[in-house]
Amino acid sequence: MPIRIKICGITRYEDAKAAASIGVDAVGFIFYPKSPRYIAPEDAAAIIAGLPPFISRVGVFVDETPERVVAIARTAGIDTLQLHGTESPEFCAMMPLPVIKGFSINAVTDLSKLDGYRTSGFLLDTWSPDQRGGTGKTFDWSIATEACRKSDRIILAGGLNPDNIREAVETVHPYGVDINSGVEIRPGEKNPHKMRELVQIVRSWDRGDNKSAWTG
Question: Which CATH class is domain 4-215?
């Protein structure tokens, strides 16, 4: 199964268009006001209106009320929700759209908490005391590998870029990868060349190119 690729932190139409043109599976819009990649729902709607079909539009939320999540998703034209706060299993279950539950991972993370959720997928990102995602730092991928034994819908995030993406997919074998700061010029502005390079590396892995060199 090909690894799904999401480019997150989209704030500009040209970046969304470039991502779509190189065949990513999803683009993400961050509706968390404290994020340097925050985008207003109306601005996201204008970008989404210009996207081609068959690419997912993911809205990222952190500890919003259910009513606010639904209202923003409706305004922006979001088709998938990524909940990256302390949202409970019950909160996720009441959402009217597919949910990806995000978890911030550190050395003491207990993966058993995934068991209580019945969501469409889980996103594992690097824990930070003062930032929700977009840290540019990786975490211990052995934890993600363990999570993949619990679920076949694990999305790997945290510090992924063209230099480490092949090692990441070889080590973890995730369902998908979520890319943000690793393909940026500055927060909210993507580098089209880095996006293309990363996608080419992942698709090369999907095809099995040079896999023997990585598997020994």
Answer: alpha beta
